[in-house]
Amino acid sequence: MNIFEQRESNIRAYCRVYPVIFETAINARQTDDQGKEYIDFFAGAGVLNFGHNNPRMKAAMIAYLQSNGVTHSLDMHTTAKREFMETFVTTILEPRGMSHKMQFMGPTGSNAVEAALKLARRATGRLHIAAFSHGFHGMTLGALACTANQYFRGAAGVPLEHVTHLPLGSEKKGADSGLAALAQLRENYLDPSSGIERPAAFLVETIQAEGGVNIADRSWLQALAGLAKEIGALLIIDDIQVGCGRTGSYFSFDDLDIDPDIICLAKGVGGMGTPLALNLVKPEYDKLWSPGEHTGTFRGQNLSFVAGKEALSYFENDALMQTVNAHAQTMNNALAPLAQQFADIDVRGKGMIIGLDVGSGERAKQIVNTCFEKGLLIASCGTGGRVVKLIPPLTIPAADLQEGLDILVATTQHVMEAV
Ligand SMILES: Cc1ncc(COP(=O)(O)O)c(C=O)c1O
Questions:
Q1: Last residue in a domain, options 313, 348, 383
Q2: Ligand 1 within 6 A of CB of 282
Q3: 167-193 pLDDT, tens per residue?
Q4: Ligand 1 pocket check: which of 14, 137, 207, 247 to mutate, most ligand atoms within 8 Å of Cβ?
Q5: Distance CA 200, CA 234 (A)
Q6: Fewer Cβ within 10 Å of end Cβ, the chain: N or C?
Q7: 196-219 pLDDT, tens per residue?
Q8: Contact at 8 Å (CB) between 132 and 165?
Q9: What CATH number has the domain bearing residue 136?
Q10: Which SS3 state, helix, strand or coil, does residue 340 take?
Q11: Are residues 286 and 401 in the same domain?
């Protein structure tokens, strides 16, 4: 028995899917301690948008450490933080005319969501949050209350209250059904005798990543944004997994013509697995915080600021986003024939997040396990784990992308034909 089996908590999970010991990693490849290489279509659950050991980030962090740059500073001012913030403002916020403030918290997505919920409740004086079926927002109690998945909710040990889950108006279901449901909801909110309370906020992912790569319909999202405004609720976009370039532009909602009050970012924003989370908050809401009210020891780690600033340099021109669009095309071209060949398969996605819905968790598991044996890291998500999710680093070389797709397509064909 190795140290992990002997001593690591039973809660360990991904290491059971990939039961090897990884030693090194570069861009979209990881190598285990026996020298076997794997192509990475998992990218740390959407953290490593810019690849493992990104050379620009690595060099910047080494230089920072060698210059005795401050590594830990709570939320004190440092040069690393100043440079990250200035770059974020000039590269991301100003070009979009966004006046949002940047709130740093503990470096997890869950923590960003917690902060957003607190502020929405304060801003409105309301208790309830409207979240969505199949949404995933994290594991701490407030965020978990917004997460829909029963397996995770069951671990809470206390009632998860004050959140209502509504159906997502997804592209797959079509605009009409989503818009009809919203119209009904609007009627209820506006009717003082409906008994249905207006929420403090709508918390929504534009693409539900863990929930099965469910893409929110554009007109539904716009109607939701309009409804939020009309009833005085905040619109919180959780862009933790699908932001930072994943869909072909910095924010997943850049082309959706909505204006969120709070945007939650984490995962990729810190660069290369160097943890960082932040909320972008409209100033009129941000001013409702008092100093230190949502505190945390690791609010903005300087190495994450250094690597995160390098990540922003990818958005100074459109070279990476053009690559994302080209890679997305390659991915769709490879997977679309599967949907034609097998009635049970659905392929959906935007940019470089693509879901291969194979109709059953058992099949998806076989695909994930066989891909692993053949040297491809990929994971499943969605109800019962039936959707194989492709989220490779955006910087993956074209040859690695093709090699990984070839493994996935051949494996899927084999598994589908066997059942
Ligand atoms: C959309 C979304 N929100 C929140 C979270 C929670 O982030 P973390 O695991 O860093 O707490 C995740 C994690 O997968 C996520 O995908």
A1: 313
A2: no
A3: 999 999 988 889 999 999 999 999 999
A4: 137
A5: 6
A6: N
A7: 999 999 999 999 999 999 999 999
A8: yes
A9: 3.40.640.10
A10: helix
A11: no
